[in-house]
Amino acid sequence: MQFSPLIEELIQALRCLPGVGPKNAQRMALHLLERNRAGGNRLASVLQRSMEQVGHCSSCRTLTEQEICRICSSGRRNNTVLCVVETPADMLALEQSGVYDGRYFVLLGHLSPLAGIGPDDLGFNELVEKLQNEPVEEVILATNPTLEGETTAQYLVELLSSLPLKITHLAQGIPLGGELEYLDGGTLSRAFSGRQGFASVKETNG
Amino acid sequence: MQFSPLIEELIQALRCLPGVGPKNAQRMALHLLERNRAGGNRLASVLQRSMEQVGHCSSCRTLTEQEICRICSSGRRNNTVLCVVETPADMLALEQSGVYDGRYFVLLGHLSPLAGIGPDDLGFNELVEKLQNEPVEEVILATNPTLEGETTAQYLVELLSSLPLKITHLAQGIPLGGELEYLDGGTLSRAFSGRQGFASVKETNG
Lengths: 206, 206
Prior knowledge:
2 copies of one chain form a homodimer. By secondary structure, the first copy, chain A, is an alpha/beta fold. Chain A is built from 9 helices and 6 strands. In chain A, helix 2 (22-35) packs across helix 3. The first copy, chain A, is globular. Chains A and B meet through helix 1, helix 2, helix 3, strand 2 and helix 5 of A and helix 1, helix 2, helix 3, strand 2 and helix 5 of B.
């Protein structure tokens, strides 16, 4: 026994959402049908428009329905720094922290030979071209501190080494509020090998 | 800083799904946009059709896009028993247990004066009419064992008392695999007051 064909189809379709299993999809379908048809209709319409209209910023590759995204078209950003991130969500996280006012370049992934993702898929050519044509002085490689993220950063370091640029990466160490007792060995070992004198912290900030 | 307007609209629209908060909605939107546009398009189309076409079975009120649902139109069900449940999901759960081969009536909710849900919203008139016109001999009230569910059942017992029917409810007690140590006092107290002799279990089954 199952629900009627269309309801079963809806439950199946909802499973394309990440983290949604069969029980959860059933709950979502029945909730919309029983209690929120207006919400369901709005979701259907926005979803259809989004899938059709959202593309990539022609300058930084982030997801947007505009030709050039808000950050790339802003006149108030620092043109001499470019931060390379893996995903639009990473870009948003950095923006929300408020520490950065330069430009971005979004790879939309990381190097992954097993998944067939190579330099061409991540826009490395566009990145090099951008760096040659724009007044960028520093590139911050803010890929994730995972195996794939670090491999991608290492590849970029070699690719960009011939350009007259300063290449940096984000500091690795103990996160704020982290407790030594519960941190993994990898993080502790990075924090140890990257330890700083109290004076040098000042210098870095200055 | 936020994503572009259309992406923000999509994130908002996804929050109409139950159990989906802001972070989760963002993850879903980016997943569909970055990795599964086909799934997103299919979901949009099925969602739109479902919201438009799914209505209620004209006989038992369950959700279906058909005029009469599969169970009501089946010739193999026992016409003399009618099981009253709160939701289509409850009906599915009973069907999947495989213990019941009668007909259903779906209230689509429970009495709730605070939420403005009264007898008219739950189809009580249709239920009485159905019982008068069909050869039903027993009505099983399978509302949930919650305050609202039991109030609804009690109301139905009074409403149907004038009809020549046997009215029953599901047995309450310790669930299979439940451990006494962890059961709530209410369940234990029901299980105690409803205790059965080993002989009477046989009688009930016979």
